[in-house]
Amino acid sequence: MLNDEKWMKQAIKQAKMAATKDEVPIGCVIVKDDKIIARAYNKREMNQQSIAHAEILAIQKACKKLKTWRLEGCTLYVTLEPCPMCAGAIIQSRIEHVVYGAYDPKGGCVGSCTNLFEAKGFNHYPSYTSGILEEECSSLLKEFFKQKRKKA
């Protein structure tokens, strides 16, 4: 649990960087052998790419660093429950474990709307831990959208 909080704080740092660039504050780090091998934050607005989610960008960086698409032995930390696209990418990349902070009742696919990690028929089933530093992760998102509504 303490290690999960340590690494989630690093994901939160990434989320805060996203917010400074007017991106939805979601951050991600991937850890292997007790070291961060990749870090990323949402860049959908910057890149004008619907797939530029923090998890996707971090997975791409981790694959490049390890020179393989199989991210076995890795743990992915993300501030918001993965969406269907990201949950699918996590399954496809063979990430061993996922830790997320805030739940996403409108799009989360690791327990909220559905759970792709438990859907029958896949050839890989990541384990996961939810709700780590949930309040801090959730408040980043709530504050971001509150400010957005004020500006609108």
TrEMBL record:
Keyword Hydrolase: yes
Biological processes, Gene Ontology terms: tRNA wobble adenosine to inosine editing
The protein's name: tRNA-specific adenosine deaminase
Documented EC number(s): 3.5.4.33
Native species: Faecalicoccus pleomorphus
Family assignment from sequence similarity: Belongs to the cytidine and deoxycytidylate deaminase family. ADAT2 subfamily.
Functional summary from the UniProt entry: Catalyzes the deamination of adenosine to inosine at the wobble position 34 of tRNA(Arg2).
Subunit organization: Homodimer.
Any single Pfam family the record assigns to this protein: MafB19-deam
One MF annotation (Gene Ontology) recorded for this entry: zinc ion binding
Gene of this entry: tadA
